[in-house]
Amino acid sequence: MAWTLSESNGAFSGAFTIVDGTVGVKGAGTVSGTLSGSTVTFTASVPAGGFDAPFAGCSASISGQAALTESTLTVTYTGSNSCSGALTSGTATLAKS
């Protein structure tokens, strides 16, 4: 998972990409949220057409919180995928670049 963000007054938005580690399918969409101290609250979505074939007709959305340090963002999320159903208890750690 990768996020490319713009931030202003504690609110952010931008693009994100995600790769399913099992099948290698990439998805691209948008992410937005707020930052309060070291806690990030966010929502993200990949629209239909945002995933590689053969899943181009699928869409997904996730929401959750993340803990921000100087160099990492540790994300916990839940959500849904129009083709596969619920996404539960996902985690990811993103490194600042």
Largest sheet: 7 strands, antiparallel
| Number of alpha- plus pi-helical segments | 0
Radius of gyration: 13 Å
- Helix coverage percent: under 10%
Strand order of the largest sheet: 1-2-3-4-5-6-7
- Percent of residues in beta strands: over 45%
Q: Distance between the terminal alpha carbons, to the nearest Å? A: 13 Å
C-alpha geometry: globular
Query: Which class do the helix and strand fractions yield?
Result: mainly beta
Describe this protein's structure.
The chain is an all-beta fold and 97 residues long. 0% of the residues lie in helices and 67% in strands. It has no helices and seven strands. The chain has a seven-stranded antiparallel beta sheet with strand order 1-2-3-4-5-6-7, with no helix packed on it. Strand 2 and strand 3 form a beta hairpin. The mean pLDDT is 92.
Short description:
With 97 residues, the protein is mainly β. It has strands spanning 2-8, 11-19, 26-36, 39-46, 60-68, 72-81, 85-95.
What tags apply to this protein structure?
97 residues; mainly beta; 7-stranded antiparallel beta sheet
Could you give the topology of this structure?
Blueprint: E1 2-8, E2 11-19, E3 26-36, E4 39-46, E5 60-68, E6 72-81, E7 85-95
Antiparallel strand pairs: 1-2, 2-3, 3-4, 4-5, 5-6, 6-7
